[in-house]
Amino acid sequence: MKTEIERILKLRQEANGLNKLMHMRVITLDEDGGATVELDLTDELLNPLGMAHGGTIFTLCDIAAGSAAASHGIVAVTLDSNIHYYRPGHAGTTLTAVAYERKRGSKTAVYMVEVHDEARRHIADAVFTMFYTGETLGDKTS
Predict the structure, then answer these.
(1) Structural domains in the chain?
(2) Which of 34, 48, 62, 122 might form a disulfide with 30, Cβ 3.0–4.6 angstroms?
């Protein structure tokens, strides 16, 4: 029998919408509110200068924070966020976003997200405040 975290990970891995369009892969979910998401930088995800578009990196962070929040089995949406870009991501590389829970309350939670490329260069950091809607993921999948 699958554990709840395995069920939630499968839901995140099979998600349609923007996750699928951008070929984002939810690699891990942790019971303590963590997640790892990967993205291969293809030409479609670059800006006109040939680097990862800021929106691409931001979306990667948002998916990571949302996945981490979902690890509790409760529907969460982004309430607020900010991001700091340090280095460009380059075509043909893989970006990895690792999200971890900093603080969780009954209605909101704060997640820190770090983005690195495959050479372990620090690309960006982000902070996301997530709002719990009160619905469970079971409500959304049944």
Answers:
(1) 4-141 (3.10.129.10)
(2) 34
Among candidates 33, 43, 38, which has minimal Cα distance to 101? 33
Stated pTM of the model: 0.90
Max distance between CA atoms of the chain, in angstroms, equals: 49
Cα–Cα distance between 124 and 87 in angstroms, integer? 7
Give alpha helix (H) positions in 26-135: 54-70
CA distances from 106 to 74, 76, 131 (A): 11, 11, 9
* pLDDT 10s digits, 78-105: 999 999 999 999 999 999 999 999 999 9
Decide: 111 and 100 in contact? Cβ < 8 Å.
Answer: yes
